[in-house]
Amino acid sequence: MTTFSTAPVPDDPDAAPLRPGRKLGPISATVGSAHRAWLEPTRERYLASGHTLSYLSTRIPLAKSKLSELLRGVGHYPRWEVIHRLAEELDIPGWPLHRLWIQAAMEAGKSRDWVTRSANGNIAFAPSRPPLEHGALRSIAEEGYLRYAGAFLSNEARNAAVEDTFAILWLSFGNALSSPDIRRYAWEILRATVKAKADHRDRRPVLVEAAFDTVALREQASAEGAVAQLAESMELFAAVSRLPDTQLDVMVLRRLCGFIPEKVSDLLGIPLASVRSAERHAERFLEETVELSHHTGGTNP
Known about the structure:
Layout: H1 33-49, H2 53-59, H3 64-72, H4 80-90, H5 94-107, H6 112-119, H7 132-150, H8 155-171, H9 173-178, H10 182-197, E1 200-201, E2 204-205, H11 215-218, H12 223-240, H13 245-256, H14 261-268, H15 272-295
Antiparallel strand pairs: 1-2
């Protein structure tokens, strides 16, 4: 199993430099998932910097009150020109921030023309590479991430979700290194990113499209057999989508992606024993659920 080193955790990791003035308010509940993806690490970088809004307003062409709104996700979606200047002051890597900013602009209904104009020429970044451990994790985990995301998303959305995951991980890499396990930290980003992009039923991600690509379905010799297998697969995947997060992840990686338990453990950043326990509990739930569905004429419990 591949392991990654972790940075020492400070005595009080929640402590932030004291600064004069009113405390920054929370992120607005109306902020979308794509906007939150870059806003949260940007706020964390600001809170850790020791800078005040008054100081930043002298460096960035934005009033103190507008900076406060920007960092809470209130008001109009910010132009890249402003975000670029803020990133320079807070030493935030430009490429991942720009990618996530564009995604959120699209989510906010902005046009491609607005995205281009809002940069005002400020789209160039100083040459930079992600941290070495970020690159090491990506080289090992990317294939697994793509296959997991592909169980929920189309190819284009799958690729975007994985690219967004590594961008968010880069922006928050200090937190990742101080977490108990960088693999677990990264996986939780992936799961949240995939969920945000997936179709949902009863607030759970839908796996139905994966039914069209099962080995059992491809091996059916007759159209009648294929239809029967498809119906069974769709019923099973609907039940899988109701599993708790870890059990869902394990079943997707084991049964849809075909990974061995050791690889699943490595991707999720959890002990091998936890993978096997999650799989046993999931299998028991699925057996009981599908069997009950058959006895009740196809209705869910």
